[in-house]
Amino acid sequence: MLWLAIAAVLLVAAFIGSAVATDASTFCPTCHEMRPYYAAWKDGTHGHEGVDCIDCHVNPGMAARLEHKPVALLEVWAHFFGNTSFPLPTPPTVPNARCTRCHPTVKVTRKNFSHELHAAKGTCEDCHPTTGHAVSAQALKDAGIFNPNVVTRPLALKVAAVNGGKANLNGHVNVVCSRCHDMKATGCRACHKPPHEERGDCAQCHRPGATFVFTHPSGGDCASCHKVPGDHPAAATGKQCALCHVAGKSWGFSHPKAGATCVNCHKVPGKHPSAAAGKACTTCHASGKSWSFSHPASGSNCTGCHARPAGHYAGACFSCHKNPGASWAFSHPSAGEHSWRSIACVKCHPNGNATYYCTCHNGRPPND
């Protein structure tokens, strides 16, 4: 039993000793692929100040360090049997909590720069991706571990680099942000909060300047910005707004030209003559503001809109109605030498008004 106890103590001591040894930053370059990272750490601020690798890559506390050992064993496996080229497609993340252990507050004395505002937009490593070790591609090439198929572009490097900014938005006011930020790549919403709901890229409607000048886009889907009013003709929903509206500040209404399909926007009234259904609206209506009614000129087809009364004469309407539209007053056609006012109607219309028959001349009047 004594030997078992001694063996157990030795194993525990060996485990603790190996755990402590592998926690040291000097252990990292024992794998050749870590040497460029170790060299960059040693020459950097963290190396000079004695901040070890595990301080950033492992959570604090002995329990967390022991929990990380299986992960480290996987790295050993990768060293012998896996892919040891860098950069990694998905590099290890460093949570903010590991940074704030040493940097609980950040004092920035640079004029017109708010660290609090920037910190609220992302993680520490978004803006400080190379703090622990700034490893160049050349260093990875020299070590024979460079992977040209992976290009890491942390958020900060996409839009900002100290003294590497670009004021590349024509018309934009001169701001201190452009010292570090590529203004075009950063995007408007990084600094500006729109007063309206999401409508896509700000540059579609706005031009950089002191007042963020609005310029209405040409073409595009109107409904992406504009809401159809409740009193809008239902039939017009989904149609091209530009058919009736002039794009711009007022969205003034301009009635489509004659020839357009009226029923796309207008509903035929219930009291409308049923015989007129299917006819061109502009036959009787002048398109525009009032849609005022204007009766067609003489010679048009009356029965296209009007139904004849029962027993009505079958001839042309204009033979008896001389004032179409206004009064439809009856005016009897010429009866030759006879005056229709002095002869009873049945003399000429024995079978009703739909036909006529001259009863005095065997059906036909004499030739005068």
Describe this entry's structure for a reader:
- This protein has 368 residues and is mainly α.
- Among the domains are: 19-151, Multiheme cytochrome fold (Orthogonal Bundle); 160-192, no CATH class; 280-295 and 309-368, no CATH class.
- The chain contains twelve helices and two strands.
- The chain has helices at 2-23, 35-43, 45-48, 53-57, 62-81, 96-100, 115-119, 124-127, 137-142, 155-159, 183-186, 345-348, and strands at 206-207, 213-214.
- The chain has a two-stranded antiparallel ribbon.
- Strand 1 (206-207) and strand 2 (213-214) form a beta hairpin.
- It starts with a helix and ends in a 20-residue tail after the last helix.
- 5% of the residues are buried.
- The mean pLDDT is 78.
Quickly describe the structure.
This protein has 368 residues and is mainly alpha-helical. The chain has helices at 2-23, 35-43, 45-48, 53-57, 62-81, 96-100, 115-119, 124-127, 137-142, 155-159, 183-186, 345-348; strands at residues 206-207, 213-214. Among the domains are: 19-151, Di-heme elbow motif domain (Multiheme cytochrome fold, Orthogonal Bundle); 160-192, no CATH class; 280-295 and 309-368, no CATH class.
CATH superfamily of the domain at 19-151: Di-heme elbow motif domain
Strand content: under 5%
- Reported by name, the CATH topology of the domain at 19-151 is Multiheme cytochrome fold
Secondary structural class: mainly alpha
Provide the succession of SSEs: HHHHHHHHHHHEEH
Give the topology:
Elements: H1 2-23, H2 35-43, H3 45-48, H4 53-57, H5 62-81, H6 96-100, H7 115-119, H8 124-127, H9 137-142, H10 155-159, H11 183-186, E1 206-207, E2 213-214, H12 345-348
Antiparallel strand pairs: 1-2
